[in-house]
Amino acid sequence: MKKKFKPFIFLTLLYFCFAIFPFHSQDFAISNQLNLGTMLPNWVYVLGGNVLCQPLKTSQGFCVVSEGKVLTSFSEEGSIIWQRVFPQGLQPYISQGFGEMIFAVTRKTQFQMINCTGTTLFQTETDFPITQKIIQGKDGRLFAAGSDCIACYDLKGNFRWKTPIHKRNTDLDLVELNDGSLLVFLEKTQDDKTIGLRVNPFGKIIEQIVFAAKVIQAAEGTEGVLMTFADGSAGLCCVENGTAVSKWALKQEKISRSSQSSNKIYITQAGLPEGKCFILSGSPSTVNVVNTFDGSIISSFESRLDSGKIIYSGYTSLGYVFIDNLNAMCTTQNGDLIWDAKFSKKKPFSYVLPSDTGYLVCCGTDWVIQSYRVKQFLGKAEPSSKPEQPSSYSDFYSEILYPSNNVTGRLISQETFQNMKEYYSPLRESDSTVQNQEEFYLSALETEFQAMTDELKDDNIALHQYSTEETYFRHNIPYVRQLIEHSSLTGFSLFQKKYAYVLKNFSDKSLLLATIIACKETAFDPFNDMMDALDFIVQTRYSVTDEILLKACCDAVYEICRYMGRPAFFSQGKKIISAMLYPKYSPQIRNYARQTMGKISKLSL
Fold it and tell me: Residue 404: is its pLDDT beyond 50?
């Protein structure tokens, strides 16, 4: 009989142990709100100094800029992926762009582009102190802002243009409007109302804007720039028909139920789908889900947060996260609570970053990173944001252009090609007198590429055989080669898909060689377009005797692998090159392929 009751007695004792001595682990949290002040972190890492700015979320985990001139990439579980020391020092500005490229400001007047393995691809010296993080435009171009200017650079770090701005308000970051133009805020006000300048992507000031009140916060959204104002109101500034307009505005009393609101307000899109944003107002704050097309309030819910002390807002695969100096919460779009945590008042954190798998990465002033699991996560985390596709600034092109034809002749003259080469020269300095005609250059190149691909693709050969008029591009191959060569000088993310189309659809070997060289010179391939095309033509287009073309392919594959730095590129690059190691290829090609394979292997280490 005693043996029969032993399991029951054991389970009863175990139950009382849990009841009397509750675990302070987040996985067994009993209360609705987790207290990070009494919990033990899941992992701890000691840095060589304090964290200088908000950690950067990456697909691998996150990156941290710390004192001691160190940039460190961590996994969500706390493992170091890579670490780099910068002798020049690091400023508190870090950002991310297409292809998971990281932009770090080193020294006051220098920035670097770093790939996802921590390799510096370039470092560029500006002639002014950089006062905010580097931002990337729609076509990949990079914008650096100082207190008295903004400047543009390409994806190799080459200078493009600089526009003087008299006393920019450095408390408000340079932001991009819905049409791709830049919104710059000035220190100067008019009747205590903020003044802004609208600058096109080619450096020309096109409009001055006087806002309805003093701007406190400006955040980019899909429909325009979301703003909060000193009077407690919020609104959306967007471009319609080529002019900046106030799309809507909400007064403070409409968006807050708190009696202690005192004009505290915060606005963000935070990963919401197009057409929606969050507005937090008051303390404790009311969280409003707002329709960004007309400013109507879709829903609202209460929180413990102080909207005047928000240090982070963002979207994770678990839900929407808001963090102030004492609290953190994750909710659904409708306000259903997913997890809720509070920080210690005695030991507050400077920066906090939520992960997609339920961690809170907390950085204090004691050189320590502490990570707490606030939500048990089962399964594989879906990316919390989809990669943005590059696009052109066609809305700002100078005029509608018509492609080359047999009646009007070539669109781009030899003189224009020369001017283009001078403008896109990597040696051109910021005080260069070369005229900026980028609107025309890019418009002409894109127009010609579209016409060329329509005319020269193999599917249309039969149509042209019976045409009484000779086609232009098919019979002007040297001109087409110039188009391809000069397009690679631009240094933006505009022609990768076009190169891929040429490689997959054209058969003229001189064009293929020019395009392969353009792929090598461009190297930036965030969506794998050029690499896939190179894989295709090695397998299907080339004869085993095409030594020049195959060696050019090896060079292009290596350069793309080096530039992008992702394991997937290394794997595909090795696959492409290994196809040239078979005995059917000449000894010269096999030897060149082995050398290239060795170089790619060194990169992957």
Answer: yes
Say what the pLDDT of residue 500 is.
Answer: 95
Give the residue among 526, 375, 405, 427 at the shortest CA–CA distance from 33. Answer: 375
Nearest CA to 121 out of 133, 131, 113 is that of: 113
Distance separating alpha carbons of residues 408 and 448, to the nearest angstrom: 14
Whether the model clears a pTM of 0.70, i.e. scores above it, the answer is: yes
Is it the case that residue 218 has pLDDT exceeding 50?
Answer: yes
Q: How far apart are CA 157 and CA 486, in angstroms?
A: 18
- How many residues are there in the chain? 605
Q: CA–CA separation, 176 vs 57, rounded Å?
A: 21
State the amino acid at position 340 in one-letter form.
Answer: D
Which pLDDT score is estimated for 8? 37
In our burial notation (b when 16+ CB lie closer than 10 A, e otherwise), range 207-244 reads eebebebebbbbbbbebbbbbbbeebbbbbbbbeeeeb
From the CB of residue 456, how many other CB atoms can be counted at a distance below 10 Å?
Answer: 22
Q: Which long-range contacts (CB under 8 A, 24 or more apart) does 56-60 make?
A: 56/94, 56/95, 56/96, 56/102, 57/96, 57/314, 57/353, 57/355, 57/384, 58/96, 58/100, 58/102, 58/116, 59/100, 59/116, 59/383, 60/116
At 551-577, the pLDDT tens digits run 999 999 999 999 999 999 999 999 999
In this predicted model, what pLDDT tens digit does every residue of 79-98 receive, in sequence order?
Answer: 999 999 999 899 999 999 99
Long-range pairs for 125-128: beta carbons < 8 A, 24 or more residues apart: 126/151, 126/430, 127/430
45 SS3 class? strand
201: cis peptide before it, omega within 30°?
no
Helix residue ranges per DSSP H, 386-435: 414-423
* SS3 label, residue 310: strand
